[in-house]
Amino acid sequence: MQQLILEPPYPPRVVLENEDFLVVDKPPFLLSHPTRRNDRPSVLGWLGKERGGAPFFLVNRLDRETSGLVLVGKNAAAASALGRLMEKRLIDKEYLAIVRGKLACEFLQIDAPLGYLGLSAENPVAIRQGVRPGGAPAVTVIRALSSGAEVSLVRAYPKTGRLHQIRVHLASIGHPIIGDKIYGPDPHLFLRFAEQGWGPELAEHLGLPRHALHASRLRFRWQGKEWEAAAPLPLDLRGFLDQRGIAVPPG
Fold first, then answer.
1. What average pLDDT is seen over the chain?
2. What residue ranges define each of the domains in the chain, with the CATH number in brackets?
3. What pLDDT does 129 receive?
4. How far apart are CA 226 and CA 212, in angstroms?
5. Rg of the chain on CA atoms, in Å
6. Partners of residue 129 on adjacent β-strands
7. Residue 71 near residue 36 (C-beta atoms within 8 A)
8. pLDDT tens digits for 84-142?
9. Which of 25, 39, 63, 186 is catalytic?
10. What is the β-pairing status of strands 213-222 and 67-73?
11. What is the pLDDT of residue 1?
């Protein structure tokens, strides 16, 4: 029986906190913020319940399927100031991703502008991005960590903050992220998933029920002090690599 996966596999946790902000390690399948439906769990909803209804303000957000670090302000002023740091690229972000294939080099920088592709027979997903000559500037640095016969673990450093940037850039060089329904082997799989849920056919094409992208590290300077938060690769992605004999480097 096909089943649409809605529940996160583990609870979120606070990994770093001071009087102005906190950093949450978000599991996959958890929204960053409530939607209009307001009946699905989110990071902000979880924090509200955990902290007696206190208001919180997202500084960055992750896609529902992406796991890892979310920076949250404890008040509007702190969130606004942290947001300005993000806009000025003064908050360093690192991601881990499992991609198809083996990279030809250990280091590369992808500098390719991104924009909406527009609906067509080839692109049935309205939100889908792609490399566009007139698109917004976008830069991602990629470092290969370890590889197997068919997949590789890479570290990604987005230098800009475009929609789906890492996913699009990796797909554009022929190394889409494992489990990516929009930028993987066929964007029509995204519509099939939305209509029918997860099942054996999608598992055969995608390998994982979510895209294998994890926000693993944040670094920034705040009030004269250097702050760093880290979140290890979660068990679902680690297990996928273990099954293929691919080592996860420490740190």
1. 94
2. 13-240 (3.30.2350.10)
3. 98
4. 29
5. 18
6. 116
7. no
8. 999 999 999 999 999 999 999 999 999 999 999 999 999 999 999 999 999 999 999 99
9. 63
10. parallel
11. 38
